[in-house]
């Protein structure tokens, strides 16, 4: 596995744990379809929470959350529709969050949670 994939997996593990510690239940991790992948799909009992996780080893080239642009958000929305269909969910409230994980060597890992990011 490439170093960036290991870092990304570590960030997703931390993000899932972060959500669970805040009372959310993770329903899917790395759910894939022909349109792409959803990192985390969770619920807070009131709504579905679709989370894009961005992990970086430094902020030298910008904050991780900045990587979720308008095109990426539109793609996540499309993939979410496929997830809903695959799980036979007819309607529910949906919130789209971004979790930005920074894991700089020698420093504590930080997780920033942007609720309703798009």
Automatic annotation (TrEMBL):
Domain of life per record: Bacteria
Gene3D superfamilies: 3.40.1350.10
A Pfam family assignment: UPF0102
PANTHER family the UniProt entry points to: UPF0102 PROTEIN YRAN
Membership in a protein family: Belongs to the UPF0102 family.
Protein name: UPF0102 protein HF577_15275
